[in-house]
Write a structure and sequence with these properties.
By secondary structure, the protein is an alpha/beta fold. It has helices at 7-15, 17-26, 31-40, 56-63, 75-84, 122-131, 164-170, and strands at residues 46-50, 67-72, 89-92, 105-110, 133-144, 151-152, 158-159, 174-183, 190-198.
Length: 202
């Protein structure tokens, strides 16, 4: 089982952090995702944005009253996030282990990050995302869908191909409230999205 992130993906984000940040800021805002967050996340909750990128979504969360901390594995990306959103706290943390995090949150969001992990690390990643979620807390997951076999882009980033069942089967301590397979309003890419509540006995 893979217990560490994909090194080529992490290298790509660190090497070209400023370019990726510009690309994300140039995309339309993901209003469809934000509407789901407003419907399901616990209002004003202590919130972890795992794989926060340049902080765009953490910025939205902060503006809407959530007590958010952004976490990412890339030092370069974290520097971009802190530069763009100095009012928000950002910290380093790495999927699948999230060993750097020993606290729990009311809400945990992980937007289009899982597909950058090898498929055999997905279950471990879900276990640790649920670990940092308090009982009755809300978990939002999404990932870009790759059909067929894993894909490696020219910049080195991994896009793993795995069925949604790999994620849903790992959510044994949660109740799934929402799931869909759609086209992102922001990136225009096909994504799967899941919202789940952690059981009080989970």
């Amino acid at each position: 089982m893979t217990l560490r992130p994909d090194s080529a993906t992490l290298d790509a984000y660190t090497r070209d952090a400023a370019r990726y940040s510009r690309e994300w800021l140039d995309q339309p805002p993901p209003d469809d995702m934000y509407a789901l967050w407003q419907e399901h996340l616990l209002p004003a909750g202590k919130t972890a944005d795992i794989g926060c990128g340049n902080g765009r979504d953490a910025g939205w969360l902060a503006d809407h009253g959530y007590r958010v901390t952004g976490f990412d594995a890339s030092d370069g990306i974290l520097e971009e996030a802190q530069r763009l959103y100095p009012q928000i706290g950002f910290r380093k943390a790495t999927l699948p282990s999230l060993a750097e995090i020993d606290e729990q949150f009311d809400n945990v969001v992980c937007e289009t990050v899982l597909m950058h992990l090898p498929a055999d690390a997905i279950t471990d990643a879900i276990d640790n995302l649920v670990r940092i979620l308090r009982p009755s807390g809300m978990l939002y997951l999404s990932w870009r869908v790759t059909d067929g076999e894993d894909a490696r882009q020219q910049d080195g980033r991994l896009y793993s191909a795995f069925p949604p069942s790999l994620v849903t089967h790992a959510l044994t301590g949660c109740m799934i409230l929402f799931a869909d397979d759609t086209t992102s309003a922001s990136s225009g890419k096909r994504v799967c999205r899941i919202i789940a509540a952690k059981r009080t006995d989970g």
